[in-house]
Specification:
The chain starts with a helix and ends with a strand. The protein has helices at 2-14, 17-20, 26-40, 57-61, 66-76, 105-108, 113-128, 132-150; strands at residues 46-52, 87-93, 98-103, 166-167. It has one domain (2-167): Diaminopimelate Epimerase, Chain A, domain 1 (Roll). The radius of gyration is 16 Å and the shape is globular. It is α/β, with parallel strands linked by helices. It comes from Candidatus Propionivibrio aalborgensis. InterPro entries: TPM_dom (IPR007621). This is TPM domain-containing protein.
């Protein structure tokens, strides 16, 4: 177990952020931002997409999981603080090739955990195949469909969170 931890830590230090982030060029980030904006016009949910190349030294020393980091960012970015409790964070940790989705209590009460996990595994499979943009956009479509089903757009639909992907 400790060998795996040491290898993981070394991997995070050896792979520079710019190398890991090459899979998300500006053109891809723009298309993701546009997809999020279009998505949010169809429902009362709020989406955030965050890509992190490697984990911080603090996270590595405390063996922070991708899930724990996603929950931390969910809080820091205020995804939990939307009017309808319908915020969804898609978190991508590139060096470990992990994807996590954290959904606020309003949508989580209506959607089973297995749905979110299935989306995460499909994104990871797409990324393994080198389809970063397509895998992300397909996942956003899945999340859009479930948010539109449970939180359809009404006349008043404020954009509460930034649509641009976050790069950590």
């Amino acid at each position: 177990m400790w060998k795996a931890t040491i290898l993981r830590t070394l991997h995070h230090f050896v792979v520079p952020d710019w190398w890991a982030l090459r899979s998300f060029p500006k053109s891809t980030l723009l298309r993701i931002e546009q997809a999020i904006a279009a998505s949010e016009s169809a429902h009362l949910g709020e989406l955030r997409f965050v890509v992190e190349a490697s984990q911080s030294l603090h996270g590595l020393l405390h063996d922070q999981s991708a899930r724990a980091r996603a929950v931390e960012l969910f809080s820091q970015l205020g995804v939990w603080d939307t009017e309808h409790n319908s915020g969804v964070l898609i978190y991508v940790q590139l060096v470990d090739r992990r994807v996590e989705i954290v959904a606020d209590r309003g949508i989580n009460a209506r959607v089973e955990e297995g749905f979110w996990n299935a989306i995460c595994r499909r994104i990871e499979a797409a990324y393994r195949a080198g389809s970063f943009e397509q895998g992300t956009l397909l996942a956003l479509n899945d999340v859009t469909a479930v948010l539109a089903e449970h939180f359809p757009a009404t006349g008043d639909n404020p954009d509460e969170l930034p649509n641009a992907p976050g790069i950590c």
